[in-house]
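Progress note, sequence design subtask.
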C-alpha cells in the first residue's frame, strides 16, 4: 500500500518542480547578458546573449537606486525599475528590483505583474497595501498597514496597490521574481487602451451610473491607521 503513495508523492513533487519553472526558466549557463546585436549570439528568454568573452562587470551593475523619484504627478508616486532593460546581467536570472517613492497621500495604483510575485519592504513612512484574490477565490481583499521595517508579499498575478496614508513622503523597495515581471496598471489598461474600449462596455462593466455620485477623496478617510485594515 505504500508504493502508490510514494509514486503519488513523486508525481506531485515533479508537478511542483515543473510549475516552479513555468515563468523564468532556470539558466543553463553562468550568465546570459542581454545584448541587442543578434549577430552570432544566442537567443534566450526573449533576449540575445552577449558573447561570454565580452562580458564585463558593468553588465551586472546599476547605479541610481538611491536617487528619489519625481512624485509630482497625478497619483503622487514614482517607480524606479531595475529590470533587464536597464541591467542586462539580469537576463535569465529570474529577479528584479524596484524603488517606489510616495508623496504624502501618494498612490501606486492597482496593478498586476503577470510574471512575478513581489515582496515589498518599507524603508520610510506608513503605507496601506493590499491585494485582491482571483474570481475563483471570491475576490477577497487582503490589506495591511505597513510601517518602517515591515515586509509584505503580493502573490503572482494578483491585483495589488500601495497608498501612503502619512503626511510625509514614504519609500519602499520591491523585489520581484522575474527579470521582466511586466506591469499592467488596471485603470490605464481599461480606460486608456488604444483604440479605446467601447464606453457602453465600460459603463456596464463598472456600473458607473451607480457610483458617479459617490466620489470620496482618499484624504477623507480616518487617519487612525487601525481603521484601514480588513480582517482577512
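Output:
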Amino acid at each position: 500500500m505504500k508504493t502508490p503513495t510514494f509514486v503519488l508523492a513523486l508525481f506531485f513533487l515533479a508537478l511542483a518542480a515543473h510549475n516552479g519553472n513555468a515563468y523564468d526558466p532556470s539558466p543553463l549557463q553562468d550568465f546570459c547578458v542581454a545584448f541587442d546585436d543578434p549577430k552570432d549570439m544566442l537567443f534566450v528568454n526573449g533576449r540575445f546573449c552577449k558573447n561570454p568573452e565580452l562580458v564585463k562587470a558593468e553588465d551586472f551593475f546599476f547605479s541610481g537606486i538611491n536617487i528619489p523619484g519625481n512624485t509630482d504627478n497625478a497619483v503622487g508616486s514614482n517607480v524606479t525599475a531595475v529590470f533587464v532593460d536597464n541591467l542586462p546581467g539580469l537576463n535569465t536570472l529570474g529577479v528584479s528590483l524596484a524603488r517606489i517613492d510616495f508623496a504624502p497621500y501618494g498612490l501606486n495604483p492597482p496593478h498586476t505583474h503577470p510574471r512575478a510575485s513581489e515582496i515589498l519592504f518599507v524603508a520610510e513612512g506608513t503605507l496601506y497595501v493590499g491585494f485582491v484574490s482571483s474570481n475563483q477565490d471570491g475576490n477577497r481583499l487582503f490589506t495591511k498597514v505597513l510601517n518602517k521595517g515591515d515586509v509584505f508579499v503580493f502573490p503572482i498575478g494578483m491585483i495589488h496597490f500601495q497608498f501612503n496614508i502619512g503626511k510625509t513622503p514614504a519609500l519602499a523597495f520591491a523585489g520581484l521574481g522575474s527579470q521582466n515581471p511586466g506591469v499592467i496598471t488596471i485603470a490605464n489598461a481599461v480606460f486608456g487602451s488604444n483604440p479605446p474600449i467601447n464606453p457602453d462596455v465600460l459603463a456596464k462593466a463598472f456600473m458607473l451610473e451607480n457610483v458617479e455620485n459617490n466620489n470620496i477623496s482618499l484624504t477623507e478617510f480616518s487617519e487612525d491607521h487601525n481603521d484601514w485594515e480588513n480582517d482577512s
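Residues 184-231 form one domain. Work on this subtask will continue into the next period as scheduled.
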